[in-house]
């Protein structure tokens, strides 16, 4: 339960939630004329541009990253806390360029009923974040593909596939 | 002035912004800034190998000639900054150079956050020009 003392912080967090919700609605406004893929792609692109710029600002203070894993840890901890107010709950990797990030209570899915009721709509609320992660990594020199998967709200996992060569 | 040349070099080593003090040999300074990139590359690669090394963004003096001193700085986003000063300028302390780079970094970040700026393009922002002007004038 949130107390009145945190009201200022709460208001600030809510604004981002609302803007994101509206961005999703806006992207899907095309109706019959636009496919789901196009709308998702729009959101992903928005996320990419945001992530790219955001990371320029955020990594100003941190020292230089040692390697790819260092960068992924940064995404899971610092970036996730800055944007989603929590850390990634679990990071797995095969040490060959594939990373899976588990978020047990993803911020943008936490306002909907838990479970499978809204499963078909979940991808819309993950697209921006996939782009955000891809944009951050791109600016840090890591080219990759980011996809997301949900089986049960509000948990989800993001998969990062680094493109080498 | 504090510096005779200030350069911002992009990820693929293309120059995004180069300022040269008036009356200075522009081509020569461009060349020196570019040569600095090799040293930056060496220093960055070296840090990854030696454990416990400070992973600072400021890389210090890259090299010095009779006429000039070349300093370097790299960001986590693979952008390089080079500042060249007169070798004769002994009043300029390391700390001051560090501060100049930090200011330059802040200015660059602002450029990237401009929605109309496409990363990788030349920087044409007037605000950036003014910022560099203030930087080299010691303001």
Automatic annotation (TrEMBL), chain A:
The keyword Endoplasmic reticulum applies. InterPro entries: NO_sig/Golgi_transp_ligand-bd, TRAPP_component, TRAPPC6/Trs33. GO terms for cellular component: cis-Golgi network; endoplasmic reticulum; trans-Golgi network; TRAPP complex. The keyword Endoplasmic reticulum applies. It comes from the Eukaryota. Keywords: Endoplasmic reticulum, Golgi apparatus, Neurogenesis. It is found in: Endoplasmic reticulum; Golgi apparatus, cis-Golgi network. One of its GO terms (biological process) is nervous system development. Belongs to the TRAPP small subunits family. BET3 subfamily. PANTHER family: GEO08327P1 (PTHR12817:SF0), TRAFFICKING PROTEIN PARTICLE COMPLEX SUBUNIT 6B (PTHR12817). Component of a transport protein particle (TRAPP) complex that may function in specific stages of inter-organelle traffic. Specifically involved in the early development of neural circuitry, likely by controlling the frequency and amplitude of intracellular calcium transients implicated in the regulation of neuron differentiation and survival. This is Trafficking protein particle complex subunit 6B. It comes from Cherax quadricarinatus. The lineage of its organism: Eukaryota, Metazoa, Ecdysozoa, Arthropoda, Crustacea.
UniProtKB/TrEMBL annotation, chain B:
GO terms for biological process: endoplasmic reticulum to Golgi vesicle-mediated transport. Gene3D superfamilies: 3.30.450.70. The keyword Transport applies. GO terms for cellular component: perinuclear region of cytoplasm. Pfam families: Sedlin_N. Belongs to the TRAPP small subunits family. Sedlin subfamily. This is Trafficking protein particle complex subunit 2-like protein. It comes from Cherax quadricarinatus.
């Amino acid at each position: 339960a949130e107390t009145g003392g945190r009201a200022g912080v709460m208001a600030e967090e809510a604004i981002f939630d609302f803007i994101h919700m509206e961005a999703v609605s806006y992207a899907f406004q095309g109706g019959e004329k636009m496919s789901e893929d196009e709308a998702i792609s729009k959101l992903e692109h928005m996320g990419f541009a945001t992530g790219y710029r955001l990371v320029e600002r955020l990594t100003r203070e941190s020292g230089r990253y040692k390697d790819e894993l260092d960068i992924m840890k940064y995404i899971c901890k610092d970036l996730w806390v800055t944007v989603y107010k929590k850390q990634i709950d679990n990071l797995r990797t095969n040490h060959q360029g594939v990373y899976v990030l588990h978020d047990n209570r993803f911020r943008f899915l936490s306002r909907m009923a838990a479970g499978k009721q809204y499963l078909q709509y979940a991808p819309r609320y993950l697209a921006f974040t996939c782009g955000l992660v891809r944009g951050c990594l791109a600016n840090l020199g890591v080219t990759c593909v980011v996809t997301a998967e949900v089986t049960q709200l509000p948990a989800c996992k993001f998969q990062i596939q680094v493109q080498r060569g | 002035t504090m510096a005779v040349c200030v350069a911002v070099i992009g990820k693929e080593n293309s120059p995004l912004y180069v300022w040269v003090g008036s009356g200075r040999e522009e081509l020569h300074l461009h060349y020196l800034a570019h040569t600095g990139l090799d040293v930056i590359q060496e220093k960055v690669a070296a840090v990854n190998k030696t454990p416990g090394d400070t992973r600072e963004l400021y890389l210090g003096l890259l090299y010095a000639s009779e006429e000039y001193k070349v300093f370097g700085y790299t960001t986590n986003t693979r952008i390089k900054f080079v500042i060249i000063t007169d070798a004769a300028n002994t009043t300029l302390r390391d700390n001051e150079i560090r501060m100049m780079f930090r200011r330059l970094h802040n200015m660059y970040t602002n450029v990237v956050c401009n929605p109309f700026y496409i990363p990788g393009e030349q920087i044409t922002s007037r605000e950036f020009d003014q910022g560099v002007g203030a930087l080299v004038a010691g303001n």
